[in-house]
Amino acid sequence: MAKSKKLPAGRRDFLKSVVAGAATLAAAPAEASPAQPVEERPSPAMPLMPPMIESDPPADAEVLTLDRSGSDFMVDIIKSLGIEYVCSVAGSSFRALHESVINYGGNKDPEFISCCHEESSVAMGHGYAKIEGKPLCIFAHGTVGLQHAAMAIYNAYCDRVPVYIVIGNNLDATKRDSAYGEWPHSVQDAAAMVRDYVKWDDAPISLSHFAESAVRAYKIAMTPPMAPVLLVADSELQENPIPADAALHIPKLTLAAPPQGDSGSVAEAARMLVQAQNPLIVVDRYARTQAGIDLLVELAETLQAPVIDQAGRMNFPTRHPLNQSSRRGAVVANADVIMGLEATDFWNALNTMHDQVNRTSRPIMKSDAKLISITTGDLYTKANYQDFYRYTGVDLAMAADAEATLPSLIEETKRLITADRKQALKDRGAKLASAHDRALEQARTDATYAWDASPVSTGRLCAEVWNQIKNEDWSLVSILRHFSWWPLRLWPFEKQYQYIGTQGGGGIGYNAPASIGAALANKKHGRFSVSIQDDGDLLFAPAVLWTAAHHRIPILSVMHNNRAYHEELMHVQRMANRHNRGIDRAGIGTTFEDPTMDFAKLAQSMGVYAEGPITDPNEVAPALRRAIAVVKRGEPALLDVVTQPR
Amino acid sequence: MKTFRGYRFAVALALAIALYFGSAHVRPMDAAQESKSSDTPSGNAENGKKIFNKNGCYECHGREGQGSTMTGPRIAPDPVPFDVLSRYLRKPTGEMPPYTAKVISDQELADIYAFLQSRPHPPTAKASPLLK
């Protein structure tokens, strides 16, 4: 292989030689190629742009500065949408947008939030939207950045949460600079990779086109069922000057009113519910606002009907006597009319699946129970990814937004309840209230077991955290499933921002960034954000802790550190048992032992106050008090508590 | 790592266990009163603890047998009678994976049972200011 002995004198010459070499390669047979441009690249130690005067300046003077570029107008549009933050890992394909945000836009509304992984950027947007009810913006490379972001986009999509993504791309092949890696960072159809799990995308070719698509994208993302949207911001469009005669205009944004169930179906649903002996309401991703929670309380109290909350959102107060979520089997089996409100997996609420060698399922509801569903899920279903769950044959289906439909359903229900019916409803409600109280007492008793154990029991940890935050305006910003749902069993949740549901797509790596994104939203409201942080989840992209420290995002992260991907450990254990050939090796590939990890040091290395590992339950409360003092100063704090598995 | 299926498993498991202990089967606390009448073999609690952790029992039931609503019921203190536990362990009817005699011997099972019996009783919820 021939090697050039002499490097070009300047960057321009170097690039010329690369282009010439590439042209030669394209024109000549491979064996005749005289030059190997790759060999001529400057070494890492050599300056990319040597500080010397170019010997052959172009005949026409180059334009070196400009007053206003397309990216400035893009920032005008983003501002017009009321977007408060841009979460992003810096990237060359959107360098103009980046610079326009921080300089032209004054780095305020939106403010640039420095992230260290695109998965964290999107998950922060996911958590933020669940608190704030609107999206923030994500910037990313159209190729490698979007690839990093993909799983988090999928989570947000499955969770029906709006995230507003803008990616950079270099569509014009003649303008790509190899020195910056722009060829592998360019793509014909950037959104193709995630099109299965974004609601809408576009690649505008002019600034006017960008304006229309940007406003359209926001409107689509915010119309239930909400979901991520994606826009491609071409580099040329970002960086070229805005023509002097350009008549740019930002279209008016008017969000679409969510669709309500039709009056005939609402009347029929009300009739079925009022006539039922034991109606039941199942909710999952139902409440979009506090008003949604209040409406559900009103409906449940009007009917004196139990509510099963599948915990996709903060839907119904946990201490309300009609909250029967911990009694699912009993109330489902007893119901004769069951209404699902945005019940994403309605089938799973009504049936059980048996995970043995032969998978079987059986209903737990009565065979003649009537089913009603109100869901925007019926308005929007895609084919490839199977997040639509098992089909449920219902008797009455409304393809509508449940929260928007409830006012008319409540009104119709009240109209149908006669005076003599009210006493029967009251008696039903009293029985349910009694059952609710017993369930709460059972939860408290359950929490006492392993109270003094080391590692710390999850029930004890939950009680300790509550005891320290109960007088704050708290917001629990984490998933709870791995934590045995303890807070939902023990704490009095009432407000919409006190719980943000799950990750949607089941992708791990969501919790840490989403909780910090939610805490970012809570910051301006002065709320106290607290997260139960799984160890396995934090390992995916722990540098989001630095983002929290850098941007002074106050959040108390209490680790549920069971030193394993514990759910996977149980799965492998199940297989080992099933195959009957040894049951003591399931920890291979699933546990974090030998050595264990020091999450306190990890957090400290990123500027976050941290303590741990804490293994003695009696040390939890004092550590919590110290950490809470830090959070109240406006900073993040992390306690690494080594816990029981679940 | 991606745990969606596990979620379904856990929900189904919790329900199955609730049905198991809530209907025709014996509740853990009630079972303690019956345990004296069953034929309980003697076992080594210390060895039982090792087996309990080594062979994965703790994964679903916790290291103290305290259980979880998501994975497996409480099995200590006051475990169900030995013969009930043994029968269920060998041939479970719910979501629990089977532990055959090939992977846990009868003596090892007796040791585990002794460990479960040795677990201390917790304070009552009313006695704890944190649970009021």
Structure notes:
The complex is a heterodimer of chains A (646) and B (132). Chain A contains 21 helices and 18 strands. Helices cover 38% and strands 14% of the residues of chain A. The longest helix of chain A is centred in the last third of the chain and has 30 residues, at 419-448. The radius of gyration of chain A is 28 Å and the shape is globular. Chain A is an alpha/beta fold. Residues 1-42 of chain A have low confidence and may be disordered. Chain A has a six-stranded parallel beta sheet with strand order 2-1-3-4-6-5, sandwiched between helices. Chain A has helices at 11-27, 70-80, 95-104, 118-132, 144-158, 207-222, 235-239, 263-275, 290-303, 328-334, 346-350, 402-416, 419-448, 458-469, 486-490, 511-523, 535-538, 544-550, 566-579, 599-605, 620-632, and strands at residues 85-88, 111-114, 137-141, 164-169, 200-202, 229-234, 279-283, 307-309, 337-341, 351-354, 360-363, 370-375, 396-399, 474-476, 528-534, 555-561, 609-614, 636-642. Chain B is mainly alpha-helical. Chain B has a single domain (4-123), classed as Cytochrome c-like domain (Cytochrome Bc1 Complex, Chain D, domain 2). In chain B, 45% of the residues are buried.
